């Protein structure tokens, strides 16, 4: 299994981060693909195969940690590309949310 689970939607509350600039202060770190739950069940194949798919966005995937799960919010095409290259990890910005959905400041 490539991912822990394939979801369809975001089960966590809205956290207010919507642009790459909003996510930029969160340092990237490695996360295992088999720990991720996707929030999209479909992918545009053009995004996966495009050589410049990250040109206009963040270089790192966006992951939300909520209630013990890691949700892949943005970067499904990056994760699939990593899996196709037989890599087990992905570099991602991981936003920690408390149970109420409020961002937890980094320690």
TrEMBL record:
<dbReference type="Pfam" id="PF23719">
    <property type="entry name" value="VapB"/>
</dbReference>
<dbReference type="InterPro" id="IPR014447">
    <property type="entry name" value="VapB-like_prob"/>
</dbReference>
<protein>
    <submittedName>
        <fullName>Type II toxin-antitoxin system VapB family antitoxin</fullName>
    </submittedName>
</protein>
<feature type="region of interest" description="Disordered">
    <location>
        <begin position="1"/>
        <end position="24"/>
    </location>
</feature>
